[in-house]
Design goal:
Blueprint: H1 4-7, E1 10-14, H2 20-29, E2 34-39, H3 51-67, E3 72-75, H4 78-91, E4 96-97, H5 103-107, E5 114-119, H6 121-125, H7 127-136, E6 140-144, H8 149-153, H9 160-170, E7 178-183, H10 192-196, E8 204-206, H11 208-221, E9 233-238, H12 242-253
Helix pairs in contact: 2-11, 2-12, 3-4
Bound molecules: D-glutamic acid.
Length: 256
């Protein structure tokens, strides 16, 4: 039986546009759901802030999404998941789906070489990442990327500046076989083409698909899926105001 809960929206949040890459995937898989996306552009980046700051910002965003009556939350941000997911799950009684760099799927690939794991400094310094490395860290080189998410925020998905940044980042590994590149920050998914240009035959792995699968699983097991005749939709909100919301809308409508 469907009730109000089934028709309530699913909340997504990130420090900015990165989470839109996850949202895009969720909208395609769940056309009958309503989504509210909150991009905390005003306080971006999260990845160079302390875990305490990110936790406090995440609580504020969470309150805004709960005021919208959300039935589940996706933390579409590896950094906020690392800093705040456990805390939020303790305090809020609804399904909260988080993200982590896709080291596990990378470890399962039958290929030779190192795994380059790109994420924010905050994600890589976090306890959650250390635990992930204990389990799936063999052959993984962790690359904190301060300043990289800003290219996606500026919609600078190609060009000299970005190329130069990536060149410097990857130079030490130029002569090594690379098994996979993990995009451990949702913003980097928008930079896939520029990153992939350095690794023409190497898989680039992100956590988006797995996150949406987990969302669907949690909605199903808690009886919260919207019925097939429900009308889906997306509301985009940014703490940065209408201009930032416009950027998010453009990215949402762009083909993956
Ligand atoms: N998109 C975020 C992530 O997945 C973080 C970007 C940032 O604010 O530094 O980690």
């Amino acid at each position: 039986m469907n009730n109000e809960k089934n028709l309530a929206p699913i909340g997504f949040f990130d420090s900015g546009v990165g989470g839109v890459s996850v949202l895009r995937e969720a909208v395609a898989r769940l056309p009958h759901e309503r989504f509210v996306f909150y991009g905390d552009t005003l306080h971006a980046p999260y990845g160079t802030k302390s875990p305490e700051e990110v936790r406090a910002l995440s609580v504020k965003v969470m309150e805004q999404l709960l005021a919208k009556g959300c039935k589940a939350i996706v933390i579409a941000c590896n950094t906020a998941t690392s800093a705040a997911a456990a805390y939020l799950r303790e305090w809020y009684d609804l399904p909260i789906i988080g993200m982590e760099p896709a080291l596990k799927p990378a470890s399962l690939l039958h290929r030779q070489g190192i795994v380059l794991s790109l994420a924010t400094p905050g994600t890589i310094a976090g306890e959650k990442y250390a635990r992930l490395m204990d389990r799936f860290g063999e052959g993984v080189v962790s690359l904190p990327c301060p300043g990289l998410m800003e290219y996606a925020e500026r919609l600078e998905m190609e060009g000299e500046g970005l190329r130069g940044y990536l060149q410097g980042l990857f130079a030490p590994y130029r002569d090594q076989p690379v098994k996979a590149v993990v995009l451990g920050c949702t913003h980097y998914v928008f930079l896939k083409k520029a990153i992939g240009a350095f690794f023409p035959d190497t898989p680039l792995i992100d956590g988006n698909e797995g996150t949406v699968r987990q969302l669907i699983r949690r909605l199903a097991e808690t009886g919260r899926l919207a019925p097939d005749d429900a009308k889906g939709g997306v509301e985009l909100i940014s703490s940065g105001g209408p201009e930032a919301e416009d950027v998010m809308r453009r990215l949402l409508e762009q083909n993956a």
